[in-house]
Amino acid sequence: MSNKQFILVVDDDPDLVESVSMKLESENFRIAKAYDGVEAWDRIKEEKPDLILLDVMMPKKNGYELCDEIKKDAKYKDLIVVLLTAVGDAVTSTSYTHNEGKTTMADDFIPKPIDLDKLVEIVKENLE
Fold first, then answer.
1. Which residue in 56, 70, 73, 120 has its CB near the most CB atoms, within 10 A?
2. Which CA distances in Å does 58 have to 15, 77, 106?
3. 35 close to 29: Cβ distance less than 8 angstroms
4. Residue 76 has what pLDDT?
5. Closest CA to 52 of 4, 96, 111, 7
6. Rounded distance, CA 66 to CA 12, Å?
7. What is the 3-state secondary structure (H, E, C) of the chain?
8. Considering all CA atoms of the chain, what is the largest pairwise distance in Å, rounded to the nearest integer?
9. Which residues are CB-neighbours of 67 under 8 A, at least 6 positions away?
């Protein structure tokens, strides 16, 4: 695969971004990193990725907000967005709701803690 597929990894946890990025790079994907929703949106506009792995709970702009912006923008609406979410387990201690998750236009979801092998499967399925 000479033209590597390009994935943007977005999470406010640098360790998670690093482990996910290393796993995907080992699978021959090209990676960019962002640590909040605002930085991610800038990265998306600089170089349109093939797929975005997007954390839900982040400072500045959360994953639901960014996903909705992407999907409502004619230039970016076809981008594949996969949400990384621990919200299901933390729903009683967070302002994020299952309803937001159901109304978002994300293409897929990966629960945290992340199983890196499962993540690679989901990424590959969504890029087919």
1. 56
2. 14, 21, 16
3. no
4. 97
5. 7
6. 14
7. CCCCCEEEEECCCHHHHHHHHHHHHHCCCEEEEECCHHHHHHHHHHCCCCEEEEECCCCCCCHHHHHHHHHHCCCCCCCEEEEEECHHHHHHHCCCCHHHHHHCCCCEEEECCCCHHHHHHHHHHHHC
8. 46
9. 54, 81, 83, 104, 105, 106
**Which residues have a Cβ under 8 Å from the Cβ of 37 and sit 6 or more positions away?**
10, 58, 60, 61, 62, 63, 65, 66
- Domains, the chain, ordered by start: 6-127 (3.40.50.2300)
Residue type, 116: L
- What's this model's pTM, rounded to 2 decimal places? 0.87
> Which residue type, as a one-letter code, is found at position 99?
N
pLDDT tens across 93-117, in order?
444 444 544 557 899 989 889 999 9
